[in-house]
Amino acid sequence: MNRTRPTLRDGIGVRRIIGLALLLAGVAVVAYLERSIGGGFDLRLLYFLIVLCGAVLLPRLLALTVAASVAVVSAGIGGAQGTSLVVNGLTHLLMYGYAALLTNNWEIERRRLMRMSRVDELTGLHNLRALQEQLPTWLGPAARTGRRMAILMMDVDGFKAVNDRLGHGVGNELLKEVANLLRFAVRVGDEPFRFGGDEFVLLLADADGAGAQLVATRIQDIYRSMGQTLRGTDVDVSFSIGIAVFPEDGGAPETLLTRADEALLHAKRTGSAKIVRYQPSAAA
Asked: How far apart are CA 202 and CA 147, in angstroms?
């Protein structure tokens, strides 16, 4: 597999460059105000706001660049020279730099915790909370453009037998394998989620019932050709899959998930390794 080496431009990004430019422009504006109004007003709070905004919005190196710029400008604007200028500059650099580091560390930790709350620890897929947040975002463009969107809800048949006979460690490895299979089987832009337990959900953009059926069949075929975790054992697993399509099967996120779940339940009642599209008569 060929991997492209990340560049500095990839790491920073256009938005961050624009943000850095705006913050530095803010430093210049505050310095101009401070020089214009003299010592009548204390504008250190504005400098701190600029430093804190940089620490929240920018990577650490750029945030420290903003803090250093603020320190140099705020120390030099008072007209001090010689030793006083050096001492003031170092003092301001320590003060603003420390504030930037603390805030940046806090922001990194906040984002890490937010990511953990939306990512399943075992499989690395997004979890139910992320699904509930993202599904309305997916439906919005589909509704505006009149495009279809499909939801696949998938259950691992025989998963209880895997845990009971082979142990939970093997069951966990099987779930990881399924997650990797889903990443491989879907198109770029489509999204797999771990719904909970041994259930998974796939969001398929620009997919009707026939397209969703094709994806579901491909998932089953790929697993049958792999079966790595359980190879050499006498335990068989397969996937039951329920399908609901927007807008035919519902227009609200909760409705689509419910109907995909109803289709999945019907598939499991029919037998293992079944794919069922939601039908009102079948759900009744």
From this structure: 17
Query: What is the mean pLDDT of the segment spanning 131-153?
Result: 88
Q: Which residues, at least 6 apart from 17, have a Cβ–Cβ distance to it below 8 Å?
A: none
User: Cα 151 to chain center, whole Å?
Assistant: 19
Name residues whose C-beta falls within 8 Å of residue 109's C-beta, 6 or more positions apart in sequence.
Answer: none
Separation of alpha carbons 173 and 229, rounded Å? 7
Residues 137 and 273 in one domain: yes
Residue that is last in its domain, among 86, 118, 150: 118
Tell me the C-alpha distance between 175 and 181, whole Å.
10
Number of domains in the chain: 2
Catalytic residues: 198
Two tokens, residue 189: 């832009």
Full-model pTM: 0.67
Mark which of 67, 97, 118 sits at the end of a domain: 118
Tell me, what's the pLDDT at 258? 94
pLDDT in tens, 257-281: 999 999 999 999 998 899 999 988 6
Where in the sequence is the domain holding 238, given as residue range(s)?
128-283
**Identity of the amino acid at 64:** L
**Using an 8 Å Cβ cutoff, are 219 and 239 in contact?**
yes
48 in a structural domain: yes
Residue 241 and residue 272 in one domain: yes
